[in-house]
Design goal:
The strands form five sheets. A nine-stranded mixed beta sheet has the order 10-11-9-8-7-6-5-2-14, with helices on both faces. It has a four-stranded antiparallel beta sheet with strand order 1-17-16-15, with helices on one face. Strand 12 (about 305-310) and strand 13 (about 310-315) form a beta hairpin. It is globular, with a radius of gyration of 22 Å. It is built from 16 helices and 20 strands. The protein is about 35% helix and about 20% strand. By secondary structure, it is an alpha/beta fold. Helix 1 crosses helix 9, helix 3 runs parallel beside helix 4 (about 120-130) and helix 8 (about 220-230) runs parallel beside helix 9 (about 260-280).
Length: about 450
C-alpha cells in the first residue's frame, strides 16, 4: 500500500475533523441575544491591549465554483457604496468600547475580493482606521487580491492603508482545471500583478494554491507549483479543496466524478510539498511554506508561531477584531461572529447595533485544550505535563483523551512518551486528526450525531 493510500485509509477510519482555526470551533458557537454581551466583552479589554483587525468584504466580480468563502457576486456599485459606508459605521460603533488610541498590531483584508472597494474606497477605510488606531512599527498590513481584477488605480489606496503584504489567489494554472472551477487566470496575469505590487513597494508576496480540485492530478498540481515559483513568492499556502455543496450551493456545479479521491489528494499534497521544499522553502505547520528569511519561517523555527482564523500568523496576543459580514473576533473572554448575511449585518449596523450573531465564551479547560491544539498545529509536538503546569492544572486531565491516539500511534503518525507527543514528518498530513483527540466538543458531537465536515 502506498503512503497516500495508507494515510487515506487512516483518515477514513477516524472520520471528519475540523480545520482548527479556533477552539472551540465555529459549529459550537451559540446564538447571541442582542449585542449587550459583546459590548461588555469589549468594554472589559485591558488598556494595554494590542489589536489585530480583520476586515471582510463579501463581494466578487464573479463566482468561482470551488469557493467556500462568505461572498456573493456584486450587483451594482450602489450596493458596494452602501456596504462601504456601513463598514466604516461598524468601525465607529466598536471603537468607543476600546481603550483610548488602541494600538494596531496587524490588519488583514479578506473576502470575497477586498480590492473590489477600489482605490478611493480603500483610502476611505485607511482614513477611518488611522483616525482611531495607532499602527505599531512592525504591524503587518495584508490584503487578498484576485489578480484577474487588479488595476493600477488600486495602488494609491493600498499605499494609504500601508499594505506591506499581498496574497494573490492562484489555485491552479492548469487550463482544464480552471475551466472546471470557472476561473480563467493565465500565469502572466498573476505575474503582472506581482510586478505592479513590487514596483509600488509592496514586496512581500504570498500565493494561494489548492489541490483536490476537479481534474487535478499529481502532474498538473506539480506543474502549477513549479510555474508559481518563477514569481519568487515569499510564502505559499497550499490548501485542500473543501467540497461542501450543502453549505455552498454553487459548488454543486462541480461534477463530483471529476474530484480526486482521498488517496489522490494525499498524493497531490505530498508532491507539491516536495517540490516546494526542494526549491528551498521551509514547511510551516500543516499547509504553509515560506522562504527561510521570512518571518513566518523564522517564528516557526523559534517555536513562536501562532494560528488564528486567517491561518498561520506571526501575530501574538489574544485580541482580534473582525469587521464586516461573518467576520469572527477573538478576545480573552472568547469568540464572537458577525451576522453572515449581508442584509442582516446591514440592518443591525443601520440600527446602531454591533452586528454580532453568535458568541462562545471560553473556560479554563477550553483555553488549555486550545493551547494543546495550537502547539500541535504549529509545531507538531506538545509536552502536556509542561503545558498543564503553565495553566495550573494536572496532566491527568488528558488521560481519557490519550487512548484515542492508539490507532495513529500504531501507524507512526504520532509518537508518545508519557505526556510528550511528537508528530514525525510522515505524520504531518494527519495533524488535525491528532488534534481531534483533544477536542472534547467533537467527541460529544460524535456521540450525539456524526458531524458533516469536508474531507480532510
Amino acid at each position: 500500500m502506498s503512503d497516500s493510500a495508507r494515510l487515506a485509509a487512516l483518515a477514513a477510519r477516524i472520520g471528519p475533523v475540523p480545520r482548527y482555526t479556533s477552539y472551540p470551533t465555529a459549529p459550537h458557537f451559540q446564538p447571541a441575544s442582542g449585542d449587550a454581551g459583546w459590548r461588555g466583552w469589549l468594554d472589559a479589554l485591558p488598556a494595554d491591549s494590542a489589536f489585530a483587525l480583520y476586515v471582510h468584504v463579501p463581494f466578487c466580480r464573479q463566482m468561482c465554483w470551488y469557493c467556500g468563502c462568505n461572498t456573493q457576486v456584486l450587483k451594482g456599485n450602489a450596493t458596494l457604496e452602501r456596504f462601504l459606508a456601513l463598514l466604516l459605521r461598524e468601525i465607529d460603533l466598536v471603537v468607543p468600547h476600546l481603550p483610548a488610541r488602541p494600538r494596531l498590531s496587524g490588519l488583514h483584508f479578506g473576502g470575497g475580493t477586498p480590492t473590489i472597494l477600489g482605490g478611493d474606497g480603500l483610502q476611505r477605510v485607511a482614513e477611518t482606521l488611522h483616525r482611531h488606531f495607532d499602527a505599531m512599527p512592525d504591524a503587518e498590513i495584508a490584503i487578498e487580491i484576485d489578480p484577474r481584477h487588479f488595476e493600477a488605480g488600486l495602488v494609491p489606496g493600498l499605499k494609504a492603508l500601508g499594505i506591506n503584504r499581498a496574497s494573490l489567489g492562484v489555485q491552479s494554472l492548469d487550463e482544464s482545471v480552471q475551466a472546471a472551477i470557472n476561473r480563467h487566470q493565465p500565469l502572466d496575469v498573476v505575474a503582472r500583478t506581482a510586478d505592479a505590487l513590487r514596483t509600488a513597494g509592496i514586496n512581500s508576496i504570498n500565493l494561494d494554491l489548492i489541490y483536490g480540485l476537479p481534474g487535478q492530478t499529481v502532474e498538473n498540481v506539480t506543474d502549477t507549483v513549479r510555474a508559481s515559483l518563477a514569481l519568487q513568492p515569499d510564502r505559499i499556502a497550499l490548501f485542500g479543496y473543501a467540497h461542501v455543496p450543502w453549505m455552498k450551493p454553487h459548488q454543486a456545479r462541480i461534477d463530483t466524478a471529476t474530484l480526486p479521491d482521498t488517496a489522490a489528494r494525499f498524493a497531490q499534497e505530498a508532491a507539491a510539498a516536495q517540490a516546494l521544499t526542494e526549491a528551498g522553502y521551509c514547511r510551516v505547520g500543516l499547509d504553509h511554506f515560506a522562504r527561510p528569511q521570512d518571518a513566518l519561517a523564522q517564528q516557526a523555527a523559534a517555536g513562536q508561531l501562532n494560528r488564528n482564523f486567517q491561518g498561520y500568523t506571526t501575530q501574538t496576543g489574544e485580541v482580534l477584531l473582525g469587521f464586516g459580514p461573518s467576520a469572527i473576533s477573538t478576545l480573552p473572554q472568547g469568540y464572537a461572529q458577525n451576522i453572515p448575511a449581508v442584509a442582516g449585518w446591514r440592518a443591525a449596523v443601520e440600527a446602531g447595533q454591533l452586528p454580532v450573531a453568535r458568541m462562545r465564551a471560553v473556560n479554563a479547560e477550553d483555553i488549555l485544550r486550545r493551547a494543546v491544539i495550537e502547539q500541535l498545529m504549529c509545531h507538531l509536538q506538545v509536552d502536556l505535563a509542561a503545558l498543564t503546569a503553565q495553566h495550573g492544572m494536572a496532566p491527568d486531565i488528558f488521560d481519557a483523551d490519550l487512548p484515542r491516539l492508539a490507532l495513529l500511534e500504531s501507524h507512526g503518525i504520532v509518537i508518545r512518551q508519557g505526556y510528550e507527543l511528537r508528530i514525525p514528518e510522515t505524520g504531518r498530513p494527519l495533524v488535525r486528526q491528532v488534534c481531534a483527540a483533544f477536542d472534547s466538543y467533537l467527541q460529544q458531537q460524535n456521540a450525539a450525531a456524526p458531524p458533516r465536515h469536508a474531507a480532510a
